[in-house]
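TODO from last week: model Glutathione-dependent formaldehyde dehydrogenase.
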Amino acid sequence: MLAMNYRGPFRVRVDHKPYPEIQHPQDAIVRVTRSCICGSDLHLYHGLVPDTRVGMTFGHEFIGVVEEIGSSVQNLKVGDHVLVPFNIACGTCSFCKQGLYGNCHESNPEATAVGGIYGYSHTAGGYDGGQAEYVRVPFADVGPMVIPADIHPDDAVLLTDVVPTGYQAAEMGGIKPGDTVVVFGAGPVGIMAAKCAWLFGAGRVIVIDHLEYRLDFVRTYAQCEAYNFRSMQDPVLFLKKATDFYGADVCIDAVGGDAAGSALQTITGRKLMLQAGSATALHWAINSVKKGGIVSVVGVYGPTDNLIPIGNVVNKGITIRANQASVKRLLPRLIEHVQAGRIDPKGIVTHRVPLEEVSDAYHIFSAKLDNCIKTILIPPS
Ligand code: NAD
Ligand code: ZN
Ligand code: ZN
C-alpha cells in the first residue's frame, strides 16, 4: 500500500509499505478515505518530538471504511464508514473511565504522560498513522464511531481532532457569559477555539497571530477581532490596553512550542515559517490574563519547553489547564453542533492533495505558503 514515510527532519515522502495486519482480537483495519495534516505533525516533521523513527507513517486525523475486524470486535462491521479519534484509548483503564481518553494508560503503558496517538512517534506508543491507504486501529470497539449519514466526510475528518481540540480549549478556559477570551494562534486549532468560545457565552473574542491571511480568515469565520503581533511593540501591553488594564478573563494557547522548527527550517534553506513559538505565546497568555484568570493550553510543547513565568502565575493567582483533547468524550455534543450548523468544520479546508504529493503538502503547510490553513490528503481510490 502507499503510505507517508518519515525520512528525517523536513523529509517525508510516499512509499510502498506492507498492509497492516490484525495483531490483536480487538483490532480493526481501516481503508483510509481522507486524512489531514495537523500542526502537531509539524512538530514531528521538524524533528522536535523524541523517538520519531525513520520509516514511521504519520497521521492521527483520518476517516475510512472498516476493511477487516478482529475476532472480538463487536461494535463495528466490515463496510462501516468510521471516524477515528486521534487518541488510542482502551476504554477501561482508570483514565479512560474518567473520560480522559487522551491519557489512556493501556494504549501507551510505558509513557508517563501521553496515551497512544496514531502516527505520533514512539513516545506516543509507536503506532503507525493514517496518512496511508490502510491503518491498523487498536481497541476498535472504543474509539471509532460510525459517521452519521448527515455528516459530510470533510466535517467527519475534522471531528477526529481539530474541532474537539478547539472546543476543549474553550471548555478548559471555563468561559463564563460575557467573558473576554484571547486566543493565541490562528491555525486550525485557534480558529476552532475562537469559534467555540462563543458557544460558551464569551462576550468578546480576540485572536492573535502574525499571518495576515489567517487573521483575515478568522475575522470572518469566527466573527472575532484579530490582530497581528508583529504590528505591536508589546502584545501584552496591547492586550492590557484592550481590556481596561484588567487583562483577559481567559487566554488560550493554540500555538505550542516550535521555535527550533523554524530555526531548522532556515538552516535547511526552506522558506522560513517565522513561527515565534518556544513558549512565547504561553508567556503572553500568562502575562495578559487577568488576576485569578484561566490560561488554557492545547498547544503542544516538547520536553524542553518548560520555562514558564511561574512567579507571575503565583502572584496573579492564575489557573493553568492543559491537556490533549479527549475526542471521544466530546464527539456526541460536537456532532450536534455540526448538525445544527453552529460549527462548520469543512469551512477551514484550503487544500485537497493526493496522498502521493505528501512531501509538497507538508512543505506548504509548514511554511504557511499558498494561504494554507488545513490540508486534506486523499489516498488513491
Ligand atoms: P498551525 O501551525 O497551523 O498554527 C499555529 C499558528 O500559531 C500559526 O498560524 C502561527 O503563525 C501562530 N503563531 C506562532 N507563534 C505565535 C505567537 N507567539 N502568538 C500567536 N500566534 C503564533 O497549527 P494548528 O494545527 O493550529 O495547531 C496548533 C497547536 O495545537 C500545535 O502546537 C499543535 O501541536 C497543537 N494541537 C494540540 C492538540 C491537543 O489535543 N492538545 C490537538 C491538535 C493540535
Ligand atoms: Zn491533529
Ligand atoms: Zn485507557
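Done. The mean pLDDT is 93.
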